[in-house]
Amino acid sequence: MNAVNFELKHICKQTGARYGILHTPHGDIETPIFMPVGTQASVKGLSPEELKSMQATIILSNTYHLWMRPGEEIIREAGGLHQFMNWDRPILTDSGGFQVFSLAGVRKITEEGVHFHSHIDGSKHFLTPEKAIQIQEALGSDIMMQLDECIPYPADRDYTKNSLERTTRWLERCLNEQHYPEKQSIFGIIQGGMFADLREQSAKEIIAFDTPGIAIGGLSVGESRELMLEMLDVLRPLLPENKPHYLMGVGTPDYLFEGVLRGIDMFDCVWPTRLGRNGAAVTSIGQVTVRNAKYARDFTPLDPNCDCYTCQNYSKAYIRHLIKADEMFGLRLTSYHNLYFLISLMHKIREAIQNDCLGDFYQDFKKMFDSDRR
């Protein structure tokens, strides 16, 4: 019995988008879903109680960062990540591969794994597929990601082909290392860069392992919008209907819609909280850079169409004042709003799928969202 199982409930007659339920040991998740990112066992600036208040049902944490600090053994002693961070809903952990491969100049990739130096203190470490699973088992997440090789963009064809084949071999090693499939599930990751035939090759190889979920990695890494959507179009007919499809690292409103229209069920991204910490908000009428001087006397909410805590209680003028005064509450307010906005948007997308009108909803959203880029 797999720890995680997907139940497809409805396919939108207008668009073919999917509504489903992902069953996990820590609760059920309606999909499509946006997952807030809590890299270091915390979604930046927000408490678990605040995340629950905005109806977040699953969050993502990062294996690399938690391995480096505080260490997986401390989290194991605490009773696992759920206990450690006081979050009783599902958790997905990334394998740490993306972070390790981002340490250009201080890491070396081999068939066995990746040698690297910690970004914290320069200490030497060796991340293997087996080690990635060992750490994630100590963390106790509901969904574990395989260790894959995240290639740079652009990358040549030969490198990309060798990389995706290594990712396939590493998935087999991850699955062989797994001890508790009834408690935690591993998702395989499709790679293949920006080459359609290599994406197809990777998809066929990864899907053959029959993991409880399928992820798509290596997109939104600097390529054009058109190229990213082309790769999703290539993969869509290959993805198994009875498994959740996870597009890694994507979370802006336009990409959420475009991904859902291409059969994606799960998304994550640091973008909404990063945007908030930079004094900006995503709203139903476009992006608002609230730190700008034009909002000094604007006593209206960030978004006139939003019912979140921030918009119900505070004005642009007040939030701008807090940000200019370096008061952390201002950045917490924008971060709260941005996450609420995306989680609420996904709720509306799920309703539109069930009502067979996602295409109409997307067109209406675009007209409003693009009407006033500020």
Short description:
This protein is an alpha/beta fold. The chain is 41% helix and 18% strand.
How would you portray this structure in words?
By secondary structure, the chain is of the alpha/beta class. The chain has 15 helices and 16 strands. The chain has helices spanning 48-53, 63-68, 72-77, 81-85, 97-101, 129-139, 157-177, 196-207, 225-235, 253-261, 271-277, 309-313, 316-324, 328-354, 358-369, and strands at 5-11, 18-24, 27-31, 33-35, 59-62, 91-94, 107-109, 114-117, 124-127, 143-145, 185-190, 213-216, 245-247, 266-268, 281-283, 286-288. A hairpin with a 4-residue loop joins strand 7 and strand 8 (114-117). Helix 14 packs antiparallel against helix 15. It is globular and about 60 Å long. The termini are far apart.
Structure keywords:
alpha/beta; three-stranded antiparallel sheet; 18% strand
Described by strand count, sense and barrel closure, the largest sheet is: 8 strands, parallel
Give the beta-strand count. 16
The shape is globular
Supply the number of helical segments: 15
Cα separation of the termini: 50 Å
Beta-strand portion reads 15-25%
Spans of 5+ residues with little confidence (pLDDT < 50)? none
Mean of all residue-level pLDDT scores? 96
Q: Provide the helix percentage.
A: 40-55%
How do the strands of the widest beta sheet line up side by side? 4-14-13-12-11-10-6-5
Please state the CA-atom Rg, rounded to the nearest Å.
20 Å
Helix- and strand-based class? alpha/beta
